[in-house]
Amino acid sequence: MAIGNYVMMGAGAVALVFGARYVMRLNRLSSELEVVTKVSIYRVTISGIDLRIEVTLKNPSGGSVSVKHPFVKIMHGESTLASSAMKDTDMQIPKFSEVTLDPVILNVGFLPLATSAPALLREYRKTGQLTITARTVTTINNSIPFTKNDSIKLGTGIPA
Q1: From start to end of 32-109, where are the E strands?
Q2: Can you tell me where the transmembrane regions are (predicted)?
């Protein structure tokens, strides 16, 4: 009976060591995963501004990674201007490589823009540029949440 207890304790210790090693590798991976988000004005129509969002996921580590399709939210301050659709798809990123997703076109209507972010319009009239935040949210290996905020300037810099 005593030998069985020692075997169980040994197996538990080995599982703890390997589990801790796995979690440490995933945490390191989440700090190394690079997300490059590019936002540009695609077109301006009567209904609003269409933003083209391109997301590139880069894996600089020695192991392959499974990443959920990222959710992208365009914000000004705490106001959400537009957000992408949710997709429950996994993407494999091989070691030392990158994956560029298909561009996403988001429409930001003038009426919601004027009511939710009047400061954004004032900023554009004053500087000729819009400063927005692109928040990218995904999950690495179905267990580690990953969020990155990118501050992006849109426009020519010529006051309106």
Answers
A1: 34-44, 48-59, 65-68, 71-76, 79-83, 90-93, 97-100, 104-109
A2: 6-24
